[in-house]
Design goal:
Chains A, B: This is Helix-turn-helix transcriptional regulator. The structure is a homodimer. The first copy, chain A, contains five helices and three strands; from the N terminus they run H-H-E-H-H-E-E-H. By secondary structure, chain A is mainly alpha-helical. Chain A has a single domain (about 5-115), classed as Winged helix-like DNA-binding domain superfamily/Winged helix DNA-binding domain (Arc Repressor Mutant, subunit A), CATH 1.10.10. A three-stranded antiparallel beta sheet of chain A has the order 1-3-2. In chain A, a hairpin with a 5-residue loop joins strand 2 and strand 3 (about 75-80). The longest helix of chain A is centred in the last third of the chain and has 35 residues, at about 85-115. Chain A is elongated and about 60 Å long. At the A-B interface, helix 1, helix 2 and helix 5 of A face helix 1, helix 2 and helix 5 of B. The first copy, chain A, binds a DNA duplex through helix 3 and helix 4.
Amino acid sequence: MTDPIAEACPIVEVLDHVAGKWSIGIIVAAADGPVRFTELERQVEGISRRMLTLNLRKLERDGLLIRTVYPTVPPRVEYSLTDMARELYTSLTGLLGWAERHRGSIAQARAAYDAGKTPAAV
Amino acid sequence: MTDPIAEACPIVEVLDHVAGKWSIGIIVAAADGPVRFTELERQVEGISRRMLTLNLRKLERDGLLIRTVYPTVPPRVEYSLTDMARELYTSLTGLLGWAERHRGSIAQARAAYDAGKTPAAV
DNA sequence: CGGTATCCTAAGAGATACTG
DNA sequence: CAGTATCTCTTAGGATACCG
């Protein structure tokens, strides 16, 4: 089975974890150095505390994030990317770049598509 | 705002459409030529008819797929990638490659993570 | 500060019968 | 063949109060 489609299927599981709405934001936010929980909460805009925690755990479990706890008086927890995640970040930026370049076209395509459907409410 | 995080946020919307569990499979399946509905139903394994339709519409709306209907006696509908989508496919293969290279490590990381948590049920 | 725990709503997703 | 319509169940996700 060198068939790319057959290969893709289980991989999509992996991608599902990695390319999730929030995962990408978290990875990007952690890309340039260790980040603390509250920093993430601020930087990954729109995320709720719950979702942040869940995604953080998921990424940690998948071996993409390292969670370091400093047992100081005000607790300090830092998240940093593993090498694997850094490599992913590279691929991600490709995707990010694509999205950036084409989001205008996508918005236009949507508008055009909708224009051809909705007003047909004869 | 050259801040990559701030930039990433609206883009994630785009990615959300494009990097969805099924979208990737569909794009990959359509990458090497026009594909028919039933072909997709078979190739994107595990997808339900409903989800296939919904995702197909979504991708068409975003200007990533072109839907061509041949008004023949048995209806024939073909889906093919737009140039934009082909470009995306390139970025996607990068991600796919990453996932392929690391899924073993990810599985291991998961096992290790779980091993350190679950048996602690003292 | 860095989370859990809890509650609730909306969206995602499967199955499948029906239709032009 | 290529969908649509429906029904149902499971998650994703938001809000927020509380705790070590």
